[in-house]
Design goal:
This protein is an alpha/beta fold and 379 residues long. The protein has a single domain, classed as Aldolase class I (TIM Barrel). Helix content is 42%, strand content 17%. The chain has 15 helices and twelve strands. It has a seven-stranded parallel beta sheet. Helix 1 packs parallel to helix 3. The longest helix is centred in the middle third of the chain and has 18 residues. It starts with 8 loop residues before the first helix and ends with a strand. It binds ligand V47. The site of ligand V47 has 20 residues, from strand 6 and strand 7.
Length: 379
């Protein structure tokens, strides 16, 4: 193939078969509506099976959103509340601990913790959330605080990110979720969340986390005011950092839900757009081990189909999710393990329960609360 020529499906296929990296232009070509989705899906599936075989991972997890009060006003967010808004809430230590107890009682291996940037709460309040939960429930993996919260802690304390992350690790932080990435390109970021950490800050925080040995996830919020160029730019920046550090475990494409947001006039992305984005993510992010089809956000049907379009992870049972449900998600608030496994088996895949770090989990069939790691399944 002649380098620099116009991309075609044939030369993209050749590259995928030869395990060669796709270019920015290839990514743009794949996003053209006339590029057949089923062919992109087939190529993404090939990469998915190369990396993860027939396995589709899931975990038993819960969410904790300690407050919805937030100084920021991201236009896409239906969850946030003003300081004096009657919708605003802040959880007490006792409520936080009760959630930890409920999680362990229900066999959760992971708690996904994020929250608003509260006008009056100090960094110590956020640090303390991790500390008290870890002290009370050391077996529960705490995947907590996005790059945006860490940047807020930097602002509050005037301390370096490295010192903050180390302190959180010492208190019991196990990994970081991938939120807050939205769309990196300033043409979009400046319109939807101009006040929050820019691309280089978000990426720098994840770089530092990786250097400290933390695994993190990464996301992209699509289907609002961005276009294909912004999406491929976003994926390229993630791919570049992953080349440097190897610290991202999973990429989660997040479909925009417009209800109750400042962008309520926008239609939510179609299933075709969702599947195209899952597949293109799998193809572009050749160095990230897992692609998550977050069922809460995609809906159950699309998440099931996504397993043939590059996704190898459905996330979890997910208790207490608020960010998507406040924005109009009609998915249930919790799936049982049997439901999750059925969704996977029906899609022709092998369900594998994992912990946050992609170790295989086995459970005592007579008691959900008893589990152990059997095998490390991820690099
Ligand atoms: O950063 C907010 C997105 C993210 C809306 O790391 C919205 O395993 C759509 O990052 N419509 C938070 N999206 C969620 C997140 C996440 C979810 C699941 C797993 C993991 C992981 C991370 O949700 C925010 C933002 O991009 N978001 N509002 C909305 N109305």
């Amino acid at each position: 193939m002649i380098r620099g020529s116009q991309p075609t499906l044939d030369n993209i296929r050749e590259k995928v078969l030869a395990e060669e990296r796709l270019s920015f232009e290839d990514g743009l070509f794949l996003y053209e509506p006339t590029t057949p989705l089923h062919e992109i899906g087939e190529l993404a599936n090939l990469v998915r099976e190369r990396k993860n075989g027939d396995r589709t991972y899931y975990n038993i997890n819960t969410h904790l959103n300690t407050t919805n009060v937030c100084v920021y006003r991201c236009t896409f967010c239906a969850f946030r509340a003003d300081l004096r808004d009657e919708r605003g809430y802040v959880m007490s230590d006792a409520e936080i601990l009760a959630r930890g107890g409920e999680a362990v009682e229900n066999g959760c291996t992971e708690m996904h913790i994020v929250g608003g940037l509260h006008h009056q709460k100090s960094y110590d309040w956020y640090l303390n959330t991790v500390r008290i939960l870890h002290e009370a429930y050391p077996e529960l993996h705490l995947k907590a605080w996005t790059g945006v919260e860490i940047n807020w802690f930097e602002f509050l304390t005037k301390r370096p990110v490295r010192a903050i992350l180390q302190e959180l690790i010492d208190a019991g932080l196990g990994s970081m979720p991938g939120g807050g990435a939205e769309i990196f390109h300033p043409e979009v970021r400046d319109k939807i969340c101009e006040h929050k950490s820019d691309a280089s800050k978000w990426l720098d925080i994840h770089r530092t986390a990786h250097e400290l040995g933390l695994r993190t996830n990464c996301t992209m919020l699509y289907g609002h005011i961005e276009n294909a160029y912004h999406r491929i730019d976003h994926l390229s920046r993630l791919r570049e950092l992953q080349d440097e550090t190897g610290g991202f475990q999973t990429f989660i494409p997040l479909a925009f839900h417009p209800e109750n947001t400042g962008l309520a006039h926008i239609q939510k992305p179609s299933a075709v757009m969702d599947l195209r984005t899952v597949a293109i993510s799998r193809l572009m992010l050749d160095n990230i081990p897992h692609i998550k089809a977050y069922w809460i956000m995609l809906g159950i049907g699309t998440a099931q189909a996504a397993q043939a379009y590059g996704a190898d992870d459905l996330d979890g049972t997910v208790r207490h999710e608020l960010i998507y449900h406040d924005a109009g998600a009609t998915t249930p608030e919790l799936l049982s393990v049997d439901d999750l496994r059925r969704l996977i088996v029906e899609a022709g895949r092998e369900p594998v329960e994992r912990d946050t770090l992609y170790n295989r989990i086995e459970r005592d069939p007579t008691d959900m609360r008893r589990w152990h790691v059997t095998e490390a399944v991820s690099s």
